[in-house]
Amino acid sequence: MYKILIVEDDMTIAKAIKNCLCKWNYEAEYIEDFKDVTTQFVKFDPQLVLLDISLPFFNGYHWCNEIRKISKVPIIFISSMADSMNIIMAVNMGGDDFVAKPFDLNILVAKVQAMIRRSYSFGGKLEVIEHKGVVLNISNATLEYENSKIELTKNEFKILQILLENVGKAIPRDTIMTRLWESDSYIDDNTLTVNVTRLRKRLSDVGISDFIKTKKGIGYVVE
């Protein structure tokens, strides 16, 4: 589970962000003592920081500079001070992205997800894959959507993982079968069809319809 530190002095906003991120399976905490953000950063050891500019005692630029002395963790500035000068300064101080207030929480989550994918996916340690609100948990082979959670069979999980790792790209049936054969008992073309049909039914049962599409003569795709 990725940890996100929220450095925001408006507690209403901070709590709303935390609650939203927790719903997306992130571990989020917000700062309450703004005299020493660095110490709390070290203690929490987050994988991403959401940082306001206007803060008590020292501004966000100061804390961004202090964090950069000890860490390369992604930092997304969140601020109503969204003029070009502040955005340029935020980037020059070591920020990775900027979200202007007021913002839609869904857009903020999308920014967070994109930043985490870019920053950590190459290490091969992504614990979740998210697409259109569908969250596939790599660590325990479960799928979550809105308020529903289902446990997937090994084949169902592997099929969905392959497709979500290649969103927008049609994956040939024989490619999927080869991947399944590597980790499970032998699977033929008919068995793959049965598995995909069953997976579609399970997705439909929790409100996820038309998620896996058939590309005739090729295979399957998640768009």
From TrEMBL:
Domain annotation OmpR/PhoB-type: ranges: 126-223
All residue ranges annotated as the Response regulatory domain in the record: 3-116
One annotated GO biological process: regulation of DNA-templated transcription
CDD domains from the UniProt entry: REC_OmpR_NsrR-like (cd18159), trans_reg_C (cd00383)
Modified residues (4-aspartylphosphate): 52
Regions recorded as binding DNA: 126-223
Xref: InterPro entries: OmpR/PhoB-type_DNA-bd, Sig_transdc_resp-reg_receiver, WalR-like
GO cellular component, one term: cytosol
SMART domains with a match to the protein in the record: REC (SM00448), Trans_reg_C (SM00862)
Keywords: DNA-binding, Phosphoprotein, Transcription, Transcription regulation
Keyword DNA-binding set for record: yes
GO molecular function per UniProt: phosphorelay response regulator activity; transcription cis-regulatory region binding
Listed PANTHER family: REGULATOR OF RPOS, STAGE 0 SPORULATION PROTEIN A HOMOLOG
Protein name: Response regulator transcription factor
